[in-house]
Amino acid sequence: MAMWIQAQQLQGDALHQMQALYGQHFPIEVRHYLAQWIENQQWDLVDMDNPAEEAKAKRLLDNLVAELQMKAQLQGGEDGFLLKIKLGHYANQLKSTYDRCPLELVRCIKHILHSEQRLVQEATKVSCGSGVVAMDTLSQRHQQINQTFEELRLATQETENELRKLQHSQEYFIIQYQENLRIQAQLSSLSSLTPAERTQRESALQSKRATVESWLTTEASTLQKHRLDLAEEHQKTFSLLRKQQTLILDEELIQWKRRQQLAGNGGPHEGGLDVLQSWCEKLADLIWQNRQQIRRCEHLTQQLPLPGPMEELLNKLNADITDIISALVTSTFIIEKQPPQVLKTQTKFAATVRLLVGGKLNVHMNPPQVKAVIVNEQQAKALLKNESTHSESSGEILNNNCVMEYHQATGTLSAHFRNMSLKRIKRSDRRGAESVTEEKFTVLFEAQFSVGSNELVFHVKTLSLPVVVIVHGSQDNNATATVLWDNAFAETGRVPFIVPDKVLWHQLCEALDMKYKAEMHSERGLSEDNQVFLAQKAFTSSSNNPEDYRTMTISWAQFNRDSLPGRNFTFWQWFDGVVELMKRHLKPHWNDGAILGFVNKQQAQDMLLSKPNGTFLLRFSDSEIGGITIAWVAENPNKSGERMVWNLLPYTTKDFTIRSLADRISDLNHLLFLYPDRPKDEVFAKYYTPPLSKAVDGYVKPQIKQVVPESDNMLDPDGDFDLEDTMDVARHVEELLRRPMAKQWSSQQS
């Protein structure tokens, strides 16, 4: 209910925008009287692209109607009688409207709530303290756009008024012109009169004709000037329209697309399209009004041709306005929900395309069909150069046609591809050392429709973000590297799909940090020390100074083509292994700050030797992809009075599917303090598996525990435990369970 209370405090244009969200599709009274119930429902958990979610949406609709009916029944007294009738009517209205399409109700309410939240947030930013307005750059830019729209509205209204005056003047001119023709006809008919009568009438008519012709001559010049002035005003309006459209399409929309691309790397969500759509719709309205004015000017010019440059001027204005509206329509056909950028063949995927001006230009009255095809990099380049690539594709997508749907509640025209599948792919010849997971494709969406009673026909197309096609899950790791590099370092307006081969190290760190935080669902990303550790690994360096790496560049080959020195994996493969391990099993421990992770063996030794025995830390393995090890300080059994740092063989995902990290740490009694000095139970106890329950039907469930023997022959020269030679009961049991039963039985008998 807090949101509704804040929404009611909105003023001016924000209040009008909020009120415009409501109507017959969802009355504002329902929002008011069910405010708390509406805000308590988890509308965002309903997946609009999944038809299976319809049952969930139906329950929400039924509950909404029941709440509304209950609220109606509670109204009593003289004042509540009309409200009781009204709320009951709304309950029936919503039931009949959305009973067959409950997902549309969810879409409508989500749109309303998100829009209210945006309006409240914008209002909060704009007003602060004692009436002092504090606006950030974004707010200032939005205010500038809204002010320009007001200027355009006033200019369009002014030219409309002038056009009406011109029309009235021209109509009167034509009447006077007809009057002049009538006088001329009367003069011609005087021959039938007597000379005396003819002289008398002729003198009067000629005087009248001279007056009218003089007026017509003067008025013709006035009309021509009026036409030229109006054309000049239209040119000014078009210039402002073009400037406004450039700001919205080439800056705001491009920035939204860039945010969408970075969201593919884990960046913040790109945000809704409601504000952009409202701007594009205002542009469409204004452009169309001005276009209609030009058409009327052309009609007036044809109706009364006058000598001068008007025909040429109107042709240019018509061409300009057609260019503007064409650019608007083709640029606002966008991909709202991108297909997955790592695309596996024979696997279902989804995407959504949207036409931001579809509602205003009445495209929804005859909704177009959108087709999706997959094209390679060369075909994408040809498309952007407007070279013919008709029917060319690089593969076959099933269920690749979809009719655009108009959602009246939100005013959006979109096509939801829910069940596409890439049946086959045709690869290009690869360049040099390029692997299949470095080859980029894109999904082309295209449609054709007309506006203005078939006056203008548009063939629109838009390309998805680059996708890498894989046929097996083992390729996912390298494909993700290609996508991450492209998303992070693609430049606006590039030729598909060129990216720099080298980037500054700190730029890559920003991309890795974004990815890491997104996967961990945490604000704890890669610290400066973590980034130094990664730089040491990437550049085979020993420097601990961050400044040494600030101006260094890293190439794509160093990132994910060449193996690290002495290893059989690349820098990215090592990093991605860490991310996968953390994401699957260790996310809570990272977010708790329990895992240092990015620490090498020597650093761990230096850190631990200054701490009491039993102090331990968790660091990622240098030698194994997706491995994490425990290092701890204890006495050296071979040298009395000397301490040393011990290291367990790294754990991997395989180990944590058997027994969790917290339980393994609990098993090892010699681990006492998490570095620097936190008792281990204080950190990990909340993650321990609860004690086993009592026996059921006489059976006691066995318990797996990890044991590390204290014998010195289990150590290698570096103080590492090889768990293959220790009593790691978890692994032993796993191997035992894998053996065929017959072999187990025969070995027991022997």
UniProtKB/TrEMBL annotation:
Q: Which UniProt keywords apply?
A: Activator, Coiled coil, Cytoplasm, DNA-binding, Nucleus, Phosphoprotein, SH2 domain, Transcription, Transcription regulation
The listed locations are: Cytoplasm; Nucleus
Cite the Pfam families for this sequence. Answer: SH2, STAT_alpha, STAT_bind, STAT_int, STAT_linker
Name a single GO cellular component: nucleus
Lineage, highest ranks first = Eukaryota, Metazoa, Chordata, Craniata, Vertebrata
Please cite one Gene Ontology biological process associated with this protein. cell surface receptor signaling pathway
| The protein's name in its UniProt record | Signal transducer and activator of transcription
Give start-end ranges for the coiled-coil region(s): 135-169
